[in-house]
Design a protein that fits this description.
This protein is of the alpha+beta class. The protein contains seven helices and 20 strands. The chain folds into three domains: 139 residues, Gyrase A, domain 2, CATH 3.30.1360.120; 84 residues, Alpha-Beta Plaits, CATH 3.30.70; 74 residues, Beta Barrel (Elongation Factor Tu (Ef-tu), domain 3), CATH 2.40.30.110.
Length: 363
C-alpha cells in the first residue's frame, strides 16, 4: 500500500485539532470544529482551505505546434493570457480521465491544474499526447495552493496584499508578489462563493496560511465542508460524479466540450450524441432532512433507474440533496423518484441546478 503524502501544513492541521483522513493518496484535514460550522462560516464570512494536494503542470512552448491544443476538450490557444478555462482530459471512449483547469500564463506558457488522485496518470497521458514531452514539467511538489472562499475574501486579501486583487474578474488571474515570491492569484474556487485561489512556492505556504488565518473574519475549513459547499451549487466531484466510465455528455457538462476542435475521445462523444445516451445526470431534492449517499439506488416506481453519485444534507435548503446518473426519462424537473439503500427509502423530486444560488460568487 502506497504511503500517504502530506502537505506542508500537516503540522498546522494537527495543532488545530483537525480530523485527518486519507483523500486521493494524501492525509488531508476533513474538519476542524465541524463540517456544518465550517460550511456556515464560508457562506457567511470566509474560509481558508489547504489545497496543496492538487497537481500542477507547467507547459512552455508553442501551444498549437507543440500539440497542447489538441489534448483537452477546449482550445488552450483560444484562452486569452490572464484567463483560465475548465474542461476535460478524455480517453478514447469519451470517458473522463480528469476534469481540470488550464491557466494561460503567457502566449507560450500554460499551467494545468489537476486533481490529486489522478495527477500522476494525468501527467503521463498529457506528456504522451504532446509532440515533445520535454515541453511539460510536473511542478506539483514545488507548488503550494491555498483557497480563500466566502463573501469577506476580497476584503481580507486586499487588506493584506493591496487593491489589485480586488479588481480580478471571475475566471481571471494576476501574477503578483506575495511574501517576496511570485504568486498567481486567481478568482476561482469550488464553493459558489466569492473566492480566490493562490499558487505560490510550497516553502511559503505555512507563512501565508498564518498571515491569512490571523484575520478574525476567516477560519480554516476542511474537505468535508468543501464537499458540501460544492454539492449545494451543483459542481461535480471526480471519483464520484465523474470518472473514466462517464462521459461529459452523461455528466451534464457538454458545455465544456468544443466539438469544433480535435481531441481524444471526440469520435466517441459524437457517436454517443447520435445514438442518444442511456443515462444522464439528474439533480434531486429529498422531501426530508435525510441524506442520500454515494451508490444509493434511484428508483422510478418499481424499476431501478439509476445510482446516486453524490448526496448530503444541505444546511442552506434544510433537506437532503443529490446528483445521480439515471435513465434519461427521469430528467424532467418535477419527476418523482425514490432513493433506496437496504432498509432506507426516501421520496425525492428531480430539480434544476444549482440547488443553492444565493452565494456571493459573482459579487
Amino acid at each position: 500500500m502506497a504511503q500517504l503524502r502530506e502537505t506542508p501544513l500537516i503540522q498546522k492541521h494537527t495543532e488545530l485539532g483537525a480530523l485527518i483522513a486519507p483523500f486521493g493518496g494524501w492525509n488531508m484535514p476533513i474538519q476542524y470544529e465541524g463540517i456544518i460550522a465550517e460550511h456556515r462560516w464560508c457562506r457567511q464570512k470566509a474560509a481558508l482551505f489547504d489545497i496543496c494536494h492538487m497537481g500542477e503542470f507547467l507547459y512552455r512552448g508553442d501551444i498549437v505546434s507543440g500539440g497542447l491544443d489538441d489534448v483537452f476538450t477546449f482550445s488552450v490557444a483560444a484562452i486569452p493570457v490572464g484567463r483560465s478555462k475548465y474542461g476535460f482530459l478524455l480517453n478514447e471512449q469519451g470517458g473522463i480521465i480528469d476534469d481540470l483547469i488550464v491557466f494561460r500564463l503567457a502566449s507560450d506558457e500554460a499551467m494545468i491544474v489537476v486533481n490529486a488522485a489522478t495527477a500522476e496518470n494525468d501527467f503521463k497521458i498529457i506528456s504522451s499526447r504532446l509532440k515533445d514531452p520535454s515541453l511539460i514539467t510536473d511542478i506539483s511538489a514545488a507548488t503550494g495552493k491555498l483557497d480563500i472562499q466566502g463573501p469577506l475574501s476580497r476584503d481580507i486579501l486586499t487588506s493584506l496584499f493591496g487593491s489589485e486583487i480586488g479588481t480580478i474578474p471571475y475566471f481571471k488571474f494576476i501574477k503578483t508578489d506575495i511574501l517576496g515570491s511570485e504568486a498567481i492569484v486567481s478568482r476561482t474556487g469550488y464553493t459558489g462563493e466569492l473566492g480566490y485561489e493562490i499558487f505560490l512556492p510550497a516553502a511559503k505556504v505555512a507563512e501565508l496560511w498564518n498571515l491569512i488565518a490571523s484575520d478574525p473574519g476567516i477560519k480554516p475549513a476542511g474537505l468535508g465542508a468543501r464537499d458540501l459547499l460544492r454539492l449545494e451549487v451543483g459542481y461535480s466531484l471526480y471519483g464520484n460524479d465523474l470518472d473514466e466510465t462517464i462521459s461529459p455528455l452523461e455528466a451534464g457538462l457538454e458545455m465544456f466540450v468544443n466539438f469544433d476542435k480535435d481531441f481524444v475521445g471526440k469520435d466517441a462523444l459524437l457517436r454517443q450524441k447520435a445514438a442518444g445516451g442511456q443515462r444522464t445526470r439528474i439533480a434531486f431534492r429529498v422531501g426530508s432532512r435525510r441524506s442520500p449517499r454515494h451508490h444509493y439506488e434511484v428508483w422510478s416506481g418499481e424499476e431501478k433507474a439509476g445510482t446516486v453519485t453524490s448526496g448530503a444534507f444541505s444546511p442552506m435548503l434544510g433537506c437532503g440533496i443529490g446528483l445521480a446518473l439515471a435513465d434519461p426519462k427521469l430528467a424532467a424537473i418535477g419527476t418523482e423518484i425514490t432513493v433506496r439503500h437496504e432498509n432506507v427509502s426516501m421520496a425525492a423530486v428531480v430539480c434544476g441546478l444549482p440547488f443553492f444560488d444565493g452565494g456571493s460568487l459573482r459579487n
